Amino acid sequence: MEHLSLKISLIQMNVDFGDFEANLSRAEDMINIALKQRKKPNVLVLPEMWTSDMRPYNGLPALARLKDVAARHSVNIVAGSMMESRGEQDIFNTAYIINSQGMVITSYAQVHCQRDIRPAITPGSEAVTFDLDGICCGIILGHDLRFPEFVRQLAVKGAKVLFVPGMWRGPQEIHWKLLNIVRAIENQFFVAAVNRAGTTGNVSYPGMSMVVNPWGEVLVEGDHNPDVLTTVINISLVDKVREQNPFLFDRRPDLYKD
């Protein structure tokens, strides 16, 4: 049984619509707060669309700045999501994973897109896992949280930590909280979910970022204010929980039909 741990800092930030530089500066200020802790985190997690909006040209300079932070401080960054343009027609809501050497090791294009924005965003096509410091992890973006069959694929692929960058609106915050807890319980892994905090026009974003362990216990949780939330997770708990309650082995995927 492995005895690895990760110290995770969730960057629960406000976002100014259309102001890329202000958002990047705000994110860097909050990252600096996280890095000044007595023992710095292994992983920083930013929310979905933290650069502000759906314009694809915002991605490259933000990634360059984050890669520099990762390399200088030897910290992994789950870089939330930004818009990525692939050709003239296809624009993807894309999450990027940066390792502690400052390299982008993988990306994930959101698979489940809400109907009201689907014409502007092209859905991705696959679940993505990756290794951080020797730990298999998975990632989804906000709306994916509503699709348990998709999240289960990540557990089957070996993920022991699920990162959930979100831009979850009020008044559905109870859905955000319960779904993160349920995804942790039913897949017996850690969930590290970071949501936006603040308002844009009449739309509020309730924060409530959290880390949930495989038993469904909330280890740390934010309120509706911007904040840096930090906790340490012990990966050995995943194997312990799965040994004590091995229901994942009872699955009957041969009977599942969409």
Backbone structural class: alpha/beta
H/I helix tally: 5
Which strands sit side by side, in order, in the main sheet?
5-4-3-2-1-14
Predict the CATH topology. Nitrilase/N-carbamoyl-D-aminoacid amidohydrolase
Gap between N and C termini:
35 Å
Which homologous superfamily in CATH is the superfamily? Carbon-nitrogen hydrolase
Q: Beta-strand percentage?
A: 25-35%
Corresponding CATH architecture: 4-Layer Sandwich
Quantity of strands, as a count: 14
SSE order? EHEHEEEEEHEHEEEEEEH
- Helical percentage: 10-25%
Average predicted confidence as pLDDT: 92
Which regions have little confidence, pLDDT < 50, spanning 5+ residues?
A: none
Taking all Cα atoms into account, the compactness measure Rg is 17 Å
> What's the CATH first level?
Alpha Beta
Number of domains in the coordinates? Answer: 1
Structure characterization notes:
The chain is an alpha/beta fold and 258 residues long. The chain has a single domain (5-245), classed as Carbon-nitrogen hydrolase (Nitrilase/N-carbamoyl-D-aminoacid amidohydrolase), CATH 3.60.110. It is 25% helix and 31% strand. It has five helices and 14 strands. The strands form three sheets. Strands 5-4-3-2-1-14 form a six-stranded mixed sheet. A six-stranded mixed sheet has the order 6-7-8-9-12-13, with helices on one face. Strands 10-11 form a two-stranded antiparallel ribbon. Strand 12 and strand 13 form a beta hairpin.
